[in-house]
Write a structure and sequence with these properties.
This protein is α+β, with helices and mostly antiparallel strands. The protein is built from 13 helices and 38 strands.
Length: 694
């Protein structure tokens, strides 16, 4: 077979000889390159559709820190984006005023406490809008511009903000360090509970747009959080078009907060004159992310149907504000809405949803319920609605996010508005992805991706990194990742195989449901059949030089296959994976997840926890394993990783334990990310080292 790399090299040399210009050799994309890239997020289009604000994160790798700047782009793509001068001092959560004349943002430049500030389109200077005693966690300005709603972390039994401040001061003055808890959560994600909850406050603005008067509590005495913890934001609440009411999503904590998913929508008058009204009391499952049409005729929100199941389908509920009648929009559309927004004319709802390995924006007609995809292959991470169409961020397996404008006129193509990291990535030889499908469990179609190594030579065989995604209700789809990025492996000389086993999202709710109470059989069968299919179809995969890697549920599966399917693998990598299901049932924080996945509590259904419990199969472990654990991971606690490592060491199995005391379930700090990849790739190299080209 003719060596394609040699042909390419000859062509480059010939081109250089003719033009007299040196041609750069392909650049190897490393973990440090990935950690150092600029990252954009949070696109917000101006009311007139002319401009797009976005957040740009830059990294100082040496200092191991990142910074956020505020940029503005021309929505037509005619003028180069520019950074606003107000970025100095820190910025975040930029939002337009309703008239498009002002830009609001959050900054800690005033005394280190995050407050709301305001600038104009020039972005040269900023005016402080709020002077709250605690960090503003999220905010929204009312459509009439006369009120801003902000979140504050307060003690829910305190009658005012001063009470919370006094209690916090008293706590700081204490010499003892013991903390008493009388209910769950004791910890959540990566934070220990301190008794405060996120509450919303309305603050009147004067004719200069600056806060005036005392903040009005919109959740006085409410036992719960809005924005929700740990990942909530300003999509958890919205202000009605008439600027009189706020609607927010929150769960009454009580004693059962850790094992229920009963988030409801609550309405409160911005002036505090009415009691909270529960708008979704009839639904005991999750209600989230309320939005209004511009004319106030409709409200919409996302809702699940099964209490206690966090991966249930999010349907789109439509509420007629005049009659109060609620109906589900496109009830037969078998996809789960990740985000929703009304079109400017109120005739459609745009929804973000996974779809067979892609994440797309769909348009749903309010009258007919007809669903139309508006984007194609790739991963849409965020979008905003413009008068003429949509502004969105899109990425894929072959590149990080950029901002695009899509005019919804028939036949219009997306216009790319940004070109971040162009210089850093210009000479990278990307691994080429290809989606495949095969018959998995129950003879149902299962999808996956294979990624060729960078600088692929069809005459060679390559070692394989077999990546297993977490969730388990998640997906290794056609998207860019800063944690599990297949291109890092492809540029290190590995082919990559990823299978979206039963339980994955984007293939219909039945497919997602199939994994519950079946962690160790149905997905394992998919992985086995997917591996056999891929190695049979793609001749460049060296099945004798392969390692399996996974995190979270993927880490659980690494522990499971270590005792139930270890034959193909030269080594294993387990990041924050479950080792003992019975211990997880008593030590993880979001109990609703473990209890749903196992069909009940451990004391009621012990046999379910033991059925697919890796700890029961450690005697069959033989393959070398690298175990990674974050010290601040309270989802899958430290003892799970230590238990895995102990089982390996006690049996004399070659193993390492990589511990990050300052990381949670994810490794986020730039230098920690590079260390993670160095250790992981070094582990793979040790057992499946790529053969050198002749």
């Amino acid at each position: 077979m003719i060596n394609s790399l040699r042909i390419a090299a000859s062509a480059i040399a010939l081109s250089a000889a003719i033009t007299g210009v040196a041609v750069a050799a392909p650049h190897t994309f490393t973990a440090k390159d990935m950690a150092s890239l600029e990252r954009l997020s949070d696109p917000r289009v101006s009311p007139d559709g002319a401009w797009v604000l976005y957040d740009l994160r830059t990294v100082n790798f040496v200092a191991n820190k990142s910074a956020h700047d505020l940029w503005i782009a021309d929505a037509r793509g005619k003028i180069a984006p520019r950074k606003l001068a107000v970025s100095t001092g820190g910025v975040g959560s930029a939002r337009w005023s309703a008239d498009g004349k002002a830009i609001y943002f959050v900054s800690g430049r005033a005394g280190g406490v995050d407050q709301v500030f305001r600038t104009d389109l020039t972005g040269e200077s900023a005016v402080q809008v709020t002077s709250m005693p605690f960090d503003v966690g999220a905010y929204k300005v009312a459509p009439d511009g006369k009120t801003v709603v902000v979140s504050q972390a307060v003690f829910p039994d305190c009658p005012d903000l001063g009470c919370t401040a006094a209690r916090l001061d008293a706590r700081k003055a204490q010499k003892n360090s013991g903390v008493v808890h009388d209910r769950l959560f004791v910890s959540h994600w990566d934070t220990w509970a301190d008794g405060t909850q996120n509450h919303l406050y309305a603050v009147k603005l004067d004719d200069k747009g600056v806060a005036a008067g005392a903040p009005v509590s919109l959740m006085q005495g409410f036992d719960g959080d809005s924005p929700t913890k740990p990942f909530g934001g300003d999509d958890d609440f919205t202000i009605a078009p008439d600027s009189k009411t706020v609607v927010f999503s929150a769960k009454v904590a009580g004693k059962d907060e850790a094992w229920t998913t009963n988030f409801d929508l609550w309405a409160a008058a911005l002036d505090g004159s009415t009691k909270l009204q529960n708008l979704t009391a009839g639904n005991k499952a999750w209600d989230a992310a309320p939005v209004f049409s511009a004319d106030g005729k409709w409200a919409a929100y996302r809702a699940m149907k099964r209490p206690g199941f966090e991966a249930d389908r999010f349907g789109i509920m439509l509420r007629d504000q005049a009659t109060g009648v609620v109906r589900e929009l496109a009830a037969d559309w078998d996809r789960s809405a990740e985000a929703i927004a009304f079109s400017r004319d109120g005739k459609s709802i745009y929804a973000l949803a996974g779809d067979v390995g892609q994440v797309k924006i769909f348009s749903i007609d309010i009258k007919s319920g007809k669903v139309t995809p508006l984007t194609g292959d790739g991963h849409i991470s965020a979008f905003d609605v413009a008068p003429q169409g949509l502004i969105y961020t899109a990425d894929s397996l072959k590149g990080p996010a950029q901002i695009f404008a899509l005019d919804l006129k028939k036949g219009a193509k997306p216009v790319q508005l940004t070109n971040l990291n162009a210089e850093a990535l210009k000479d990278v030889a990307w691994g080429e992805p290809e989606q495949f499908d095969f018959k998995g469990w129950n003879d149902e179609t299962v999808h996956g991706f294979v990624l060729k190594p960078a600088n692929f030579d069809p005459a060679r065989k390559y070692p394989v990194a077999f990546l297993i995604h977490g969730g388990p209700q998640g997906s290794f789809n056609n998207s860019w990742s800063y944690r599990w990025n297949p291109q890092v492996y492809a540029n290190a000389g590995y082919a990559v195989v990823m299978v979206d086993f039963h339980g994955s999202t984007g293939y219909g709710q039945g497919f997602t449901d199939a994994i519950s109470q079946h962690w160790g059989d149905r997905p394992l069968e998919d992985l086995q059949k997917g591996w056999a299919f891929a190695t049979g179809k793609y001749g460049f995969l060296d099945a004798d030089r392969a390692c399996a890697l996974g995190a979270s549920y993927g880490g659980y599966m690494i522990n499971w296959i270590a005792g139930n399917w270890n034959q193909p693998w030269k080594c294993l990598v387990n990041h924050d994976g479950v080792f003992d299901q019975r211990a997880m049932g008593y030590s993880t924080e979001e109990l609703w997840f473990t209890e749903w996945e196992n069909g009940g509590t451990f004391y009621d259904k012990p046999e379910n926890y033991e059925r697919f419990n890796p700890v029961n199969h450690v005697k069959a472990w033989t393959k070398p394993m690298l175990v990674v654990q974050g010290g601040k991971d309270y989802r899958i606690p430290l003892t799970q990783g230590l238990g895995t490592f102990t089982a390996l060491q006690r049996q004399g199995i070659e193993s390492k334990f990589l511990y990050f005391p300052d990381e949670n379930h994810w490794v986020l700090k730039p230098q920690n990310s590079v260390q993670w990849h160095t250790e992981v790739l070094g582990w793979l190299d040790k057992y499946t080292a790529p053969k050198k080209a002749q």
